[in-house]
Fold this protein.
Amino acid sequence: MISDIKVFWQQNLIDGDTRHFPVLSERISQSPLEPYDSKDHVEIVSSLKNNFKNRFKGFNEIATVAQFFVSPLMEIDIQQFATSVTQNFSEDIVATKMELFEQTKNSYAWVMA
């Protein structure tokens, strides 16, 4: 969704629509004799989009792990969880499964108490 917004902003800039960029709008209105060339600003937005995409691409890969920490009592596929942990955090798969099993058992015992 974020990438869709930035593509939308890029198209706005290409079209000369600067409503999402108030400082830019103000500068353009202060210099009405100079034509506005959106090329540099479109490149900046494109670069920001690519940087954002690269910086956060790993979040999809650890979604299962992150969701578990948000809600440790949720039902999960232990194999999928352990595989995600081993691939992304260089942990031993057997140890991860055992630790997850122990944590789950302890969490349910705590809830039932």
